Amino acid sequence: MSTQDIQQLIDFIAKSGLDEVKIETSELKINVKRSATQPVVAAAAPAASPAPAPVAAPVAQPAAAPAISAAPAATAAPAPAANHITIKSPMIGTFYRSANPESPMFAEVGDEIKPGKVVCIIEAMKLFNEIEAEISGRIVKVLVENATPVEYDQPLFIVEPI
Length: 162
Prior knowledge:
The chain folds into 2 domains: 3-69, no CATH class; 77-161, CATH 2.40.50.100. The chain is built from 3 helices and 11 strands, in the order αβββααββββββββ. By secondary structure, the chain is α+β, with helices and mostly antiparallel strands. Mean pLDDT is 76; it is low at 47-77. It has helices spanning 3-16, 52-69, 71-75; strands at residues 20-24, 29-34, 39-44, 85-88, 93-96, 112-113, 118-124, 127-132, 137-142, 148-150, 155-161. The radius of gyration is 17 Å and the shape is globular. 23% of the residues lie in helices and 35% in strands.
């Protein structure tokens, strides 16, 4: 199941009003729970035998803690000006501004971006997902510190359209 499929599942659950969904296949085990304030997603690695399933459950629980602690940062983000557009996180994960510490940052304040240009990487479940711009513009502000957790739909960049 790709991260886009998981994101679509989260969106569907948010719109449907369901509080909990469990999906289990031979390759993947996903448990999505929605609380009153914030959705929490826990996914485990492939379930090859019954033994790994109990081990995966404790690993998924600590992942929920950073998600909840990052929520106040998301609400404290400043509102962009009327002509500015916000690039938001398409998933839960860890935000990185460059491919590695020695590499230059993908997008700096003042840089011009175009659709398809990578602006950051979000690591989710040991997968590094390149986040590409969907608009043309100039980066006005970076709202997230490097190597910090981000939530789904959390503002990452403010862009002034060109």
